[in-house]
């Protein structure tokens, strides 16, 4: 009976882990989607498009957006991976 209970708990843990992984994937994909939509938007409002923003502003935005899309993504991804990792109790060594 205990084996069945353990198996049920393992299945529930796996399902929960998949749900958490799927949720993290969705968040990261949304983050990247928003930032990648910025590229054509910046171009469209820049001097080559509608001319709403200056060349300097466009250049600054084309420097800032890749920073957030790469470095920002990496920081978020690493934090989410740490959250997914199983917690291990600290081992205390006998003196």
UniProtKB/TrEMBL annotation:
It holds the Pfam family Bac_rhodopsin. It is found in: Membrane. InterPro entries: Arc/bac/fun_rhodopsins. Keywords: Membrane, Transmembrane, Transmembrane helix. The chain crosses the membrane at residues 28-53, 59-81. It is a multi-pass membrane protein. Belongs to the archaeal/bacterial/fungal opsin family. This is Bacteriorhodopsin.
